């Protein structure tokens, strides 16, 4: 299990991760560090524990918002899929009726053609 060195709030941390996850872990630490820097700019140094807690809460809030939006998009997609099935079914029915009408019209034309050729 590899160890990765990351920096958050100008402090180095060594964290273990699965093989191949090193870059992802660095990206996550960078995201946390960016949130800490945002907080430092707005509230100043309020202690590392409180600062990291506030950063975690901001990130959790972002995650919650993203999860809510994902849930709403899934509901919209399900509704669209239902409408698509209804539309597809209605389209198939309309095509069947059109085909029947076309066949009936073709049959009438054949009958008229037979009558005209016999006259």
Description:
The protein is mainly alpha-helical and 119 residues long. It contains two helices and two strands; from the N terminus they run E-E-H-H. A two-stranded antiparallel sheet has the order 1-2. Strand 1 and strand 2 (11-16) form a beta hairpin. Helix 1 (22-43) crosses helix 2 (48-118). The chain starts with a strand and ends with a helix. The relative contact order is 0.06.
Write the topology of this structure.
Elements: E1 3-8, E2 11-16, H1 22-43, H2 48-118
Antiparallel strand pairs: 1-2
Helix pairs in contact: 1-2
Radius of gyration: 33 Å
Compute the number of strand runs.
Answer: 2
Give the N-terminus to C-terminus distance in angstroms.
95 Å
Major sheet: arrangement of strands: 1-2
Strand content: 5-15%
Q: What structural category do the secondary elements indicate? A: mainly alpha
| Biggest beta sheet summary | 2 strands, antiparallel
Q: How many domain units?
A: 1
Helix content, binned percent: over 70%
The run of helices and strands is EEHH
Q: What's the number of helices? A: 2
Q: What characteristic shape results from the CA principal axes?
A: rod-shaped
Low-confidence stretches: none
Mean pLDDT, rounded to whole units?
90
In short:
By secondary structure, this protein is mainly alpha-helical.
List its salient traits.
single chain; 119 residues; mainly alpha; two-stranded antiparallel ribbon; 2 helices; 2 strands; 78% helix; rod-shaped
């Amino acid at each position: 299990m590899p160890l990765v060195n990351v920096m958050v709030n100008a402090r180095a941390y060594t964290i273990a991760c699965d093989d191949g996850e090193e870059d992802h872990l660095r990206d996550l630490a960078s995201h946390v560090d960016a949130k800490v820097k945002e907080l430092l700019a707005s509230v100043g140094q309020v202690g590392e524990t409180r600062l990291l807690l506030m950063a975690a809460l901001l990130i959790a809030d972002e995650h919650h918002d993203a999860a809510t939006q994902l849930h709403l998009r899934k509901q919209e997609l399900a509704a669209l899929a239902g409408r698509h099935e209804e539309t597809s079914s209605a389209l198939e029915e309309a095509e069947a009726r059109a085909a029947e009408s076309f066949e009936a019209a073709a049959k009438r034309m054949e009958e008229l053609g037979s009558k005209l050729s016999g006259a």
